[in-house]
Amino acid sequence: MNKLLLAVGVSALSPLAFSKPMIVTSISPVSMIVAAISGDRAEIQQIVSSTASPHDFALRPSDLRKINNADTVVWVGESLERFLEKPLENAGKEESSIEWLALKGVELHNFGEDGHDDHGHDDHEGHDDHEGHDDHEGHDDHEGHDDHDHDHDHEEHDDHDHEEHDDHDHEEHDDHDREELTGHEGHNHDGVDPHVWLAPENALILAQAVTMRLVYLDSDNASYYKGNLAKFEKGLEATDAEIRKSLSKVKTVPYIVFHDGYTYFEEHYGLNHVGEITVSPERKPGAKKVAELRHEIEEHNVQCVFSEPQFSPAIVKSLLDGSNVKTAPLDPLGGDIKLNQDAYFTFLNTLSGQFLKCLG
């Protein structure tokens, strides 16, 4: 009889006692940093396919289920993933989410006239340059995303909410930790360049926030998560130093990017970006812009025009028709990188290698 009661007790407790925290992420670079800290102790479910772009993404019902079942949603912010705003609000996940753009200490840039204006957290208002992201609102059509095929339904997590972790004795820290982690202070991020994952210093800040959240959700593995954060910080420092040394050889070589989304990386490593085909990927350049770009290529002796794998290279080929300027893909999302604890380092190395290959 006692054995039967014990078995029933273990069975009843198992969804809570043995399930891993479920972290839902928006895009690949976010998943990379979460994976660096979580290792094999948490489950990661990514919403935007690694081969898709967040700039024109629309959620599907399976994505909404992921959000509803998540212990925490980690995303960049509304200026990149506007499609997540309403679902997070409807699911009551706003306060428990980690919004990268709103984290304290994150270095932010605004889209300025030259795409390289540097501003702090308090100067994000009144910038209408980046209106193209307004297209993310009202996406009710969930078709056309055949490449988004990783629909891992996890109904077993339906009851796996933060309330179930009260036995971790973190009640007195809940409000404070939540404010520190999510940074939901009403920041207006209109006009902000959201590609924060391209700056190593910003990656570390997200890693710290993810560590705090996982320690809160899964205190039994607190030392594991903190140890992974220490490894990440050490690895990030070494990777950054190596990339800085290698890219110093091509710092003065002029180039044009497909869209103005590399400012964080370029300014961190001092690269010579002289133009972009478009500010927002969803906007195709007109004939006037193409003529201006051809003039810039000639005027600045541009050595390379980068395309992106998430978008058709046809415009780049058309732009360079009849010229000897090199072209190469530059992937700001790391779509081909396998997700593991070293994925973010691999991403940075791969991106720097793509620059070197075309500029060297």
From TrEMBL:
What segments bear the compositional bias annotation Basic and acidic residues?
A: 111-193
Where is this gene product found? Periplasm
A GO molecular function term, named singly, is: metal ion binding
Per the UniProt record, one Pfam family is ZnuA
GO terms classed as biological process = zinc ion transport
Protein keywords: Disulfide bond, Ion transport, Metal-binding, Periplasm, Signal, Transport, Zinc, Zinc transport
Q: Name the principal localization, coarsely classed.
A: periplasm
Q: Where does the record place the region Disordered?
A: 111-194
Record GO cellular component, one term: periplasmic space
The family database entries (InterPro entries) matched by this protein are listed as: Bact_metal-bind_prot9, ZnuA, ZnuA-like
The family line of this record is:
Belongs to the bacterial solute-binding protein 9 family.
NCBIfam families reported in the protein's UniProt record: PRK09545.1
What the entry lists under PANTHER family is as follows: HIGH-AFFINITY ZINC UPTAKE SYSTEM PROTEIN ZNUA, HIGH-AFFINITY ZINC UPTAKE SYSTEM PROTEIN ZNUA-RELATED
Q: What is this protein called?
A: High-affinity zinc uptake system protein ZnuA
Q: Which organism is it from?
A: Marinomonas ushuaiensis DSM 15871
